[in-house]
């Protein structure tokens, strides 16, 4: 088990290095000179060629590209991601204040998607090929097919504008703070993110439950006289959790992708909104910081999936 | 968001006639597909969309980019079936022309994903050993990164453009097809006719193009269909965010970009409902077709 996890850890570290190389290469290809961009326009006309050359030298931009990459990587690993080209604030600081709302949205969204996926998935598995089964199949197909931004617009139209029940944007109302305000801002984005991701989990819960319900130990439990409820909850569900847990961990990236879109529609002040607005302001340093953060998040989730897999399933531990 | 639920009405019937003898695989497949009512309806709908896209200029009656400042933000009427947008452009005409762009981008991106997937999956299965483990590890990694976020990053650094988006979608959607082709290749590798071909001196390229790809074509067609659905959805999302197809060229996604203000959502639903429904129905239809194809190709695989 230790060797298996160590190998996975090594792979992930290697992949992270490959990603940093890809990002650095992309940034290097951009036409804009990051130094020239940091000099105020009025100074650019007054003989600053020497100044630019000097700054380039100080920042190591006249060195070979491999050395530049190394400087950049060492700084990035130490948490120095440079400064926003737009407002000069450290990128780490900008990202740090945005990560909370994104994680909040993702976790509540994940919870909601599981609350949709488990009951429906179990129902579909127990009544295979019934109307319930086809009904849930349509729900899950709709969840993966209908673009999340369109669901979000419909949600805003119905619940914010027509029924006037929920706020359409932002994370809180400063004039009226409190738990109720926080929740009312969270409901719509989180439910929509939850619905959009539920289809994937639903499918795995269903197929995993079908496998387990057909296993010998389930027949034994039934023969012993265990109630159908007990068979499902205590026996089959437990074992079917193994593949589902793995999927939840590996699906973190997709969850984040959905959150990025939802943040944009609901003006949710998270990393995704920061990243998308940075794209339009060509704030490269923020985008690079965002990219590294996402890479770490996704790779850690993959690693978590491996750890969960070994912890929950004794068969893997023997390897 | 990668795979789709497999079981839908029609599976049972499809299974029942799997034993009906005396027919070519194609004919059996077609018959099974026809039992899948939802998929057949989806094919009809999709043909309609394709026709609308092809004949967009004749059907629409308006230039999709013709600005008419005397008729801005008009509600649907006999003259403008789906109303007009903030610069007086005909929404119906833009919707039809957007179908061209959205379907085109979806097909191109999915095509790229299928080519990458077939190539890498085939190589992994054929060569085995370290090539196999490297390719499959890569597949896991690529699949765990969300295409939307990757495109945000790439568009942020290189600038948003349609080719960037197509390449990003193709690069990050290949593993679905790649895994399928690898699976087929592994099961074919030890077959006698493949060993015979190898013994006769066939190289990897010959084996791939003459033996593996034809045999893997049915599952590839299923994967390709699902990839098209995925790609159309991603195109609309990215264009909606402003990172894909750039205005004034209409795409279903960027037609919804204007709907990001509450006044438009509330007051001019025709601006966002029509393109939104068009994407949703198209992606659903393609997914249903993929489902039907899966049952037609291999009824056991569910």
TrEMBL record, chain A:
Domain ABC transmembrane type-1 residues, every copy: 99-305
Family membership: Belongs to the binding-protein-dependent transport system permease family.
Main subcellular location of this protein, as a coarse class: membrane
Keyword Transport: yes
Cited PANTHER family: DIPEPTIDE TRANSPORT SYSTEM PERMEASE PROTEIN DPPB-RELATED
Keywords of the record: Cell membrane, Membrane, Transmembrane, Transmembrane helix, Transport
Origin superkingdom: Bacteria
Biological process terms in GO annotation: transmembrane transport
Protein name (database record): ABC transmembrane type-1 domain-containing protein
Automatic annotation (TrEMBL), chain B:
Record keywords, A-Z: Cell membrane, Membrane, Transmembrane, Transmembrane helix, Transport
PROSITE patterns membership: ABC_TM1
Region entry Disordered, spans: 1-23
Record carries keyword Membrane: yes
Cellular localization per UniProt: Cell membrane
One GO term describing the cellular component: plasma membrane
Domain of life: Bacteria
Transmembrane segments: 37-56, 101-126, 138-158, 164-181, 270-290
Cross-referenced Gene3D superfamilies: MetI-like (1.10.3720.10)
Membrane topology, from the record: Multi-pass membrane protein
Boundaries of every ABC transmembrane type-1 domain copy: 99-290
Record-linked CDD domains: TM_PBP2
Pfam family, one: OppC_N
GO biological process: transmembrane transport
Similarity comment text for this entry: Belongs to the binding-protein-dependent transport system permease family.
Protein name: Peptide ABC transporter permease
Organism in which the protein naturally occurs: Actinophytocola xanthii
Upper taxonomic lineage: Bacteria, Bacillati, Actinomycetota, Actinomycetes, Pseudonocardiales
């Amino acid at each position: 088990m230790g060797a298996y996890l160590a190998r996975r850890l090594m792979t992930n570290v290697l992949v992270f290095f490959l990603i940093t190389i890809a990002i650095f290469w992309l940034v290097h290809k951009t036409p804009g000179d990051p130094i020239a961009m940091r000099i105020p326009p009025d100074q650019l006309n007054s003989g600053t060629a020497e100044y630019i050359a000097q700054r380039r030298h100080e920042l190591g931009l006249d060195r070979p590209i491999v050395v530049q990459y190394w400087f950049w990587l060492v700084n990035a690993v130490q948490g120095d991601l440079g400064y926003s080209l737009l407002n000069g604030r450290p990128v780490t600081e900008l990202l740090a204040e945005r990560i909370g709302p994104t994680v909040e949205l993702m976790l509540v969204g994940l919870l909601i998607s599981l609350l949709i996926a488990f009951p429906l998935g179990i129902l579909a598995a127990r009544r295979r090929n019934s109307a319930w089964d086809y009904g849930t199949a349509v729900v899950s197909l709709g969840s993966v097919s209908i673009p999340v931004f369109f669901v979000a617009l419909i949600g805003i139209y119905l619940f914010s504008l027509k029924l006037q029940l929920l706020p359409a944007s932002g994370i809180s109302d400063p004039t009226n703070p409190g738990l109720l305000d926080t929740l009312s801002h969270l409901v719509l984005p989180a439910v929509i993110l939850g619905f959009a991701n539920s289809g994937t989990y639903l499918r795995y819960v269903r197929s995993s439950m079908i496998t387990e319900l057909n296993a010998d130990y389930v027949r034994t439990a039934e023969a012993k006289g265990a109630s159908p409820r007990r068979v499902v909850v205590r026996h089959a569900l437990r074992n079917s959790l193994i593949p589902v847990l793995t999927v939840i961990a590996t699906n973190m990236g997709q969850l984040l992708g959905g959150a990025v879109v939802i943040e944009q529609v609901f003006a949710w002040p998270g990393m995704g909104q920061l990243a998308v607005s940075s794209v339009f302001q060509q704030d490269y340093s923020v985008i690079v910081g965002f990219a590294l953060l996402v890479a770490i998040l996704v790779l850690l989730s993959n690693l978590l999936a491996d750890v969960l897999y070994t912890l929950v399933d004794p068969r893997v531990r023997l390897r | 968001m990668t795979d789709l639920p497999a079981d839908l009405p029609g599976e049972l019937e499809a299974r029942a006639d799997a034993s009906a003898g005396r027919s070519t695989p194609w004919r059996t497949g077609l018959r099974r597909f026809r039992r899948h009512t939802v998929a057949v309806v989806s094919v009809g709908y999709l043909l309609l969309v394709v026709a609308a896209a092809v004949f967009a200029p004749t059907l629409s009656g308006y230039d999709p980019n013709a600005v008419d400042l005397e008729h801005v933000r008009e509600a649907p009427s006999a003259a403008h079936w789906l109303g007009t947008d903030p610069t007086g452009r005909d929404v119906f005409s833009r919707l039809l022309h957007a179908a061209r762009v959205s379907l085109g981008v979806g097909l191109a991106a999915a095509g790229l994903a299928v080519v990458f997937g077939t190539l890498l999956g085939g190589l992994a299965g054929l060569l085995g050993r370290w090539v196999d483990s490297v390719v499959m590890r890569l597949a896991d990694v690529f699949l765990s990164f969300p295409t939307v976020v990757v495109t945000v990053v790439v568009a942020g650094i290189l600038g948003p453009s349609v080719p960037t988006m197509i390449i990003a979608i193709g690069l990050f959607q290949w593993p679905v097809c790649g895994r399928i082709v690898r699976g087929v290749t592994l099961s074919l590798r030890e077959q006698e006719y493949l060993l015979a071909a190898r013994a006769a001196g066939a190289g990897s390229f010959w084996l791939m193009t003459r033996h593996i790809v034809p045999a893997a074509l049915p599952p590839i067609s299923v994967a390709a269909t699902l990839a098209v659905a995925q790609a159309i959805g991603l195109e609309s999302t990215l264009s909606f965010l402003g990172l894909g197809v750039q205005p004034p060229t209409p795409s279903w996604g960027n037609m919804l970009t204007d709907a990001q203000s509450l006044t438009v959502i509330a007051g001019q639903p025709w601006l966002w409902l029509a393109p939104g429904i068009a994407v949703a129905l198209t992606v659903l239809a393609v997914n249903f077709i993929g489902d039907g194809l899966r049952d037609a190709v291999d009824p056991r695989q569910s």
